[in-house]
Description:
By secondary structure, the chain is mainly α. Helix content is 57%, strand content 0%. The chain is built from 4 helices and no strands. It has helices at residues 3-14, 34-46, 54-61, 66-77. Helix 1 packs across helix 4 (66-77). The two termini are 17 Å apart. It comes from Poseidonibacter parvus.
Amino acid sequence: MNAKALFGACAACHGQNGEKAALGKSQIIKGWDKAKTIAALNGYKDGSYGGVMKGVMKGQVATKSDAEIDALAGFISNL
């Protein structure tokens, strides 16, 4: 699984290195550890996590498998 390719969709708003606040509203994800990222992505997916970007992010992760979320979290934790 190509985590970098998966992150391409994220980079559009979060920046190539996770350094941007998506649409000027989100947290900066650069530096997040894998567990925090997995918890956030799963929370967006099940609706239990998120602030102003909750609706946008739910759509982004709705179709992601557990393996894809794990791969993305690993990639993000190494940005």
